[in-house]
Amino acid sequence: MSSQQADYLERTSSVNRQKAIFSARVCAISDESDTVKRLQLEVPHPDFSYHAGQW
């Protein structure tokens, strides 16, 4: 693990993270550029939540 990654993990260690793993279905794939693809995911579980900017 790089020191940069360790620093990030330390700085965000107090941030609440969802403590579950959810299945997702790929609904769409599109090209953003020659080397980048966008995946649109559907997570049907009612307890799943996501806000833009989360990891």
TrEMBL record:
The keyword NAD is annotated on this UniProt entry: yes
One term of GO molecular function: oxidoreductase activity
Gene Ontology CC, one term: mitochondrion
Keywords: NAD, Oxidoreductase
Superkingdom of origin organism: Eukaryota
InterPro entries the record matches: Oxidoreductase_NAD-binding, Riboflavin_synthase-like_b-brl
SUPFAM superfamilies to which the protein is assigned, alphabetical: Riboflavin synthase domain-like (SSF63380)
Signal sequence region: none
Name of the molecule in the record: Oxidoreductase NAD-binding domain-containing protein 1
Organism: Silurus asotus
Source organism phylogeny: Eukaryota, Metazoa, Chordata, Craniata, Vertebrata
